Amino acid sequence: MKHTQQCPKCEGRRLWVVERFRLPGEAGPGAELPVVTHHEKGGLFTLGRASPVGRFNLWVCATCGFSELWAEGLEGLRDDPSAGIRLVDQSLDAAGPFR
Ligand SMILES: [Zn+2]
After folding, report:
1. Distance from the alpha carbon of residue 35 to the mean position of ligand 1, in angstroms
2. Rounded distance from Cα 54 to ligand 1 centre (Å)
3. What count of other Cβ atoms lies within 10 Å of the Cβ of residue 50?
4. Most confident region among 16-25, 31-40, 59-68, 78-87 by mean pLDDT
5. How far does the centroid of ligand 1 lie from the alpha carbon of residue 9, in Å?
6. Taking 90 as the threshold, does the pLDDT of residue 40 lie above it?
7. Are 68 and 1 a contacting pair, CB within 8 Å?
8. How many CB atoms lie within 10 A of CB 1?
């Protein structure tokens, strides 16, 4: 939808774009939805620190409501399988010329 500027379900061409999609809040604009929140471990006397990474832009078809979330700002994302965050990289660069 983002690239074609057309809904893939109904072929509609009126699309809403909600940049930096937020979770609705009781007051104010609500909290921006991060792609992931890495948790930094705290020291002996300190709590850990939440480190949100990334954000979403929401694309919604005005005709049928079909929606897509597009992530951006992923530069700080870290591979952390114990937290359920892993990178599946099948690109040629990752495989290297000699396997
Ligand atoms: Zn549609």
Report:
1. 25
2. 26
3. 10
4. 59-68
5. 5
6. no
7. yes
8. 18
**71 Cα–ligand 1 center, Å:** 20
Say whether pLDDT at 15 is over 70: yes
Q: How far is the CA of 63 from the centre of ligand 1 (A)?
A: 5
What's residue 29's pLDDT?
Answer: 81
**Which of 25, 15, 26 minimizes the C-alpha distance to 58?**
15
Distance 61 CA to ligand 1 centre (A): 5
Give the mean pLDDT of 38-56. 82
Three-class SS of residue 41?
coil
Beta bridge partners of 81: none
Distance 60 CA to ligand 1 centre (A): 8
